[in-house]
Amino acid sequence: MAATDLLARRATLSRSLRLLAAFRYEQSAPDRFYGALAADTVAMVSDLWTSTNGSPPAGLTLLDVGGGPGYFASAFTDAGLCYLGVEPDPREMHAAAPRTHHLAGTFVRASGTALPFADASVDICLSSNVAEHVAEPWRMGDEMLRVTRPGGLVVLSYTVWLGPFGGHEMGLTHYLGGRRAADRYARKHGHRAKNDYGSSLFAVSAADGLNWAARTGALVAAFPRYHPRWAWSLTKVPVLREFTVSNLVVVLRPLGRE
């Protein structure tokens, strides 16, 4: 069975529209937005694992690089996985806990480009919407591969710079250029954006991720995260994919180590 067979059945237009609608609440109602995203991410990872291994991932160890405020921790723990989160910003750790009413999983303060875990020590390594915030995203990708056991899965998802959401809170002004858009945002709001171009937001292309994944020799799938199945072929079209994929997922299965 191909890695995306089960996921493809869920990748419907209605799912895409539900997720798109949830994005509106990222700032105003984060529980609503991140809760929906966490549930969809658990389903995505579970489908990918089941397709490649023939059984659900319950009981396995999942390392989430850039785990954030705790929504993913709760969702994956509730799904029966042993959750480990890596987060460099202590302010982000368990920020959702007062609203989700419990602390789930284990968090480690560390950088994704230098993971404090042994080689081949986790079953699944996930990074959701983090690579575009890292100056050396493929160094992080290499670390994710290193800590994942042979036969496990690495799932790396990120926002493509030239897509409509590439500018994050800067909106479509990122098409004016990253630095110009960031300065414009600061003038308008009186402060720098949380996702500030050049410091906490970087221009990462779809081609960058696909080329890195191909070089590893472990790539098993690549697809647009929020698109219906009939639009997945956009990933294969150079240039067009930079503007239309929006969020790229690359799935890798680490090879055996000699």
Quick overview:
The protein has helices at residues 5-10, 13-23, 30-53, 71-78, 97-100, 137-147, 178-189, 206-216, 240-244, and strands at residues 61-65, 82-86, 106-108, 122-128, 148-159, 219-224, 247-252. The protein is of the alpha/beta class and 258 residues long.
Layout of helices and strands:
Layout: H1 5-10, H2 13-23, H3 30-53, E1 61-65, H4 71-78, E2 82-86, H5 97-100, E3 106-108, E4 122-128, H6 137-147, E5 148-159, H7 178-189, H8 206-216, E6 219-224, H9 240-244, E7 247-252
Parallel strand pairs: 1-2, 1-4, 2-3, 4-5
Antiparallel strand pairs: 5-7, 6-7
Characteristics of this structure?
258 residues; alpha/beta; Rossmann fold; seven-stranded mixed sheet; globular
Overall pLDDT: 90
Q: What percent strand?
A: 15-25%
> What's the architecture, going by CATH?
3-Layer(aba) Sandwich
Morphology: globular
Task: Kindly state the number of beta strands.
Answer: 7
At the fold tier of CATH, the topology name is Rossmann fold
